[in-house]
Design brief:
- By secondary structure, the chain is an all-alpha fold.
- The chain is globular, with a radius of gyration of 23 Å.
- The relative contact order is 0.10.
Length: about 300
């Protein structure tokens, strides 16, 4: 099957939306909205307003462009809130890995020693990424190190600051000493497999935030591992995976350890209150979610 759709201008797209039953009268300069946001991006926020069957592309009675824009603005603010938590987690994970491995091995250059790792092939792939990053990185501390020291590589805490989070997670996975890996995971109240699994969920969510992708009702096919005997308050079996609320639970688990007196819950409640039209069930929120052990704090 070949793709046959042709380009349509914002003016033409607006006419198409109106012909399908979408009221655009509640939005000033609707055509400019389509021009600056883009029809394709906005269509993800228009989708919930389609009547069944959705393949007919007809909108429910009373659906407006303004409603979709409110949903779009909610998702934008929601991504900012989520990314704020991920930033804290990412920095804490980078710090924990470098601090614990340096303390346990007594080697500040452990990240570039093949003897530290279990799989030499994975180590070589990681080193290729490290080498590429060092060639292009212009951070002041990297430039200063190259100009000042004769060592081939900076110490691990410098490398941990410049390599992507995904690369650092692969570094962690490949550490040969399982006792060290356990100590890092236990710092975050998790087992090694669960820590790796949850970091994968966090990285995928981070990518969505960085690329300004729709997040609020996105389905995630990847299933995370969970602790059979949680070391800290967690959620009940009624909280389903695959929706963003489960991801929020993962984030709160980390943030509660990193910054016990955080305001993540209050910020989330305030954001949902600001946009009462948002269908929280589509996000995976369960009834009385604030009474879940994790969210009581």
């Amino acid at each position: 099957m070949r793709y046959t759709k042709q380009y349509s201008s914002p003016t033409e797209l607006l006419a198409i939306l109106q012909s399908r039953g979408l009221d655009c009268s509640d939005t000033e300069n609707a055509e400019n909205i389509l021009r600056t946001i883009g029809y394709y991006r906005l269509s993800g926020y228009l989708y919930p307003f389609l009547s069944f069957p959705k393949t007919e592309h007809l909108y429910k009675s009373g659906s407006t462009l303004g409603c979709a824009l409110h949903l779009y603005e909610f998702d934008r603010e929601f991504r900012l809130l989520v990314f704020d938590q991920i930033e804290r987690i990412e920095i804490a994970v980078r710090s924990a890995i470098t601090n614990i491995v340096c303390a346990e091995t007594g080697d500040v250059f452990w990240m570039t020693r093949s003897s530290t790792f279990a799989n030499s092939e994975k180590f070589n792939k990681t080193m290729s990424l490290v080498d590429k990053e060092l060639q292009t990185n212009r951070e002041d501390f990297i430039v200063h190190f190259k100009q000042t020291y004769e060592d081939s590589y900076p110490p691990s805490w410098m490398l941990a600051e410049i390599i992507p989070l995904g690369t650092l997670t692969r570094v962690y996975e490949n550490i040969a000493n399982n006792r060290i890996r356990k100590k890092i995971a236990r710092f975050f109240g998790l087992s090694v497999p669960v820590f790796i699994s949850w970091m994968t969920i966090i990285m995928l969510t981070r990518n969505s935030c960085c690329h300004h992708a729709r997040l609020w009702n996105r389905s995630l096919s990847l299933r995370a591992l969970v602790m059979t005997r949680p070391l800290r308050p967690w959620v009940g079996d009624d909280v389903r995976q695959g929706r963003v609320f489960f991801t929020l639970c993962i984030l709160k688990h980390f943030v509660d350890i990193i910054r016990p007196n955080n305001h993540f819950k209050q910020q989330l409640i305030a954001l949902l209150s600001q946009y009462p039209m948002v269908d929280t069930s589509a996000m995976g929120f369960v009834k009385d979610w604030q009474r879940q052990p994790l969210w009581k704090v």
